[in-house]
């Protein structure tokens, strides 16, 4: 029986992935900063939001479509940029790209993707946004911007919440580095997970593919602290397409970004992987929406685990939502079949939640009645 048949929720995907992945890889994908209280706070905040059940509404015809920058999408959620996705399974980047093409949703292509950006936008049939980290003195950063433009990317996502890489003890305990350095501990870990190890060996060790042809290496731990508002201005002047700024949790920063020419803002705590004491991003989303007004494009990621979570984010002010590590867990659990299965689960959960809250679409007017403000479970 296919393992995908056992995926009925993102929790199922995570449990299956934990069995199949080496400890080092699982904890890299799953881990959060510090003692992981930020991740717990993020989850608790989402759980505390109640949706408002409504009855006797004709919800027989429901739409899960949305619109991004004037383009229709098949779902109100897309794929967040994630580094080294091929760790979850050989070809994972391309699986995600095919999923993006199938549903006409954006694929976030990470600076540290394990497949070149040119290949991913091709497979995604243009449904790809390039995510950018500023690093070091910025020389390599702006070369990647020029390359993204040449590859046909129309949307650039600047991630701004990593001036220094957060400490994630779970991955540090395993000696996780990119690229891999294999020592005795890692060798034993891989030997105890032969299915992953053999398929990865045959496919080739995952690497940071965007740097293979650039003539320089990317140090994941290198300081990014030199980036400031002048860096943003330089990028805005250089980039002719749409600019999304990701990793925003403060309303004042959001207002300044709007004034500085950002086309959209993505509220995110980096999956609680950066600052352990950061506020729950779902709370920041509500505050930032209030500061920006209803018309400015506002997106959300961090901690989304279900279709109900997607609806909660939309009712809290998000125009669009991005899914992250749960998609990697689905791939690790059951490959591309598992990925499509979980995507359908999230879609079904969202559609059912819409029916139960009496809404047929995700317009602001319909969403306004879907939550019970301040209600706790």
TrEMBL record:
It comes from Albidovulum litorale. SUPFAM superfamilies: FMN-linked oxidoreductases. It holds the Pfam family FMN_dh. Belongs to the FMN-dependent alpha-hydroxy acid dehydrogenase family. Coiled coil: none annotated. Gene3D superfamilies: Aldolase class I. It comes from the Bacteria. Keywords: Flavoprotein, FMN, Oxidoreductase. The keyword Oxidoreductase applies. CDD domains: alpha_hydroxyacid_oxid_FMN. Residues 2-375 form the FMN hydroxy acid dehydrogenase domain. This is Alpha-hydroxy-acid oxidizing protein. Its cofactor is FMN. InterPro entries: Aldolase_TIM (IPR013785), Alpha-hydoxy_acid_DH_FMN (IPR012133), FMN-dep_DH (IPR000262), FMN_HAD (IPR037396). The keyword Flavoprotein applies.
């Amino acid at each position: 029986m296919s393992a995908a048949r056992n995926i009925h929720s993102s929790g199922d995907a995570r449990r299956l992935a934990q069995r199949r992945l080496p400890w080092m890889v699982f904890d890299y994908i799953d881990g959060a900063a510090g003692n992981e209280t930020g991740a717990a706070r993020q989850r608790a905040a989402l759980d505390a939001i109640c949706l408002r059940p409504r009855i006797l509404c004709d919800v027989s015809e429901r739409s899960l479509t949305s619109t991004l920058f004037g383009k229709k999408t098949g779902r109100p959620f897309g794929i967040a940029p994630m580094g080294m996705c091929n760790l979850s399974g050989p070809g994972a980047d391309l699986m995600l790209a095919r999923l993006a093409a199938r549903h006409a949703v954006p694929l976030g292509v990470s600076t540290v993707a394990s497949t070149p950006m040119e290949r991913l936008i091709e497979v995604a049939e243009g449904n790809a946004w390039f995510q950018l980290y500023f690093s070091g003195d910025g020389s390599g950063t702006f070369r990647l911007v020029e390359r993204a433009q040449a590859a046909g990317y129309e949307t650039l996502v600047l991630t701004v919440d990593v001036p220094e890489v957060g400490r994630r003890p779970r991955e540090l305990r395993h000696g996780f580095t990119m690229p891999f350095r294999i020592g005795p501990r890692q060798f034993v870990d891989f030997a105890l997970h032969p299915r992953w190890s053999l398929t990865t060996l045959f496919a080739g060790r995952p690497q940071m593919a965007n740097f293979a042809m650039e003539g320089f290496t990317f140090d994941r731990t290198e300081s990014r602290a030199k980036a400031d508002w002048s860096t943003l201005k330089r990028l805005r002047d250089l980039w002719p397409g749409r600019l999304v700024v990701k990793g925003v949790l403060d309303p004042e920063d959001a207002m300044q970004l709007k004034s500085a020419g950002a086309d959209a803002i993505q509220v995110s705590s980096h999956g609680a992987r950066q600052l352990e004491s950061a506020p729950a991003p779902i709370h920041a989303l509500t505050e930032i929406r209030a500061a920006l007004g209803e018309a400015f494009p506002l997106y959300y990621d961090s901690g989304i685990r279900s279709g109900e979570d997607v609806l909660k984010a939309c009712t809290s002010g998000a125009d669009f939502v991005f899914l992250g590590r749960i998609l990697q867990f689905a791939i690790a659990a059951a490959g591309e079949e598992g990925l499509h299965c979980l995507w359908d689960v999230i879609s079904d959960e969202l559609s059912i939640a819409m029916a139960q809250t009496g809404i047929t679409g995700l317009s602001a007017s319909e969403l306004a009645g879907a939550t019970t403000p301040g209600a706790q479970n």
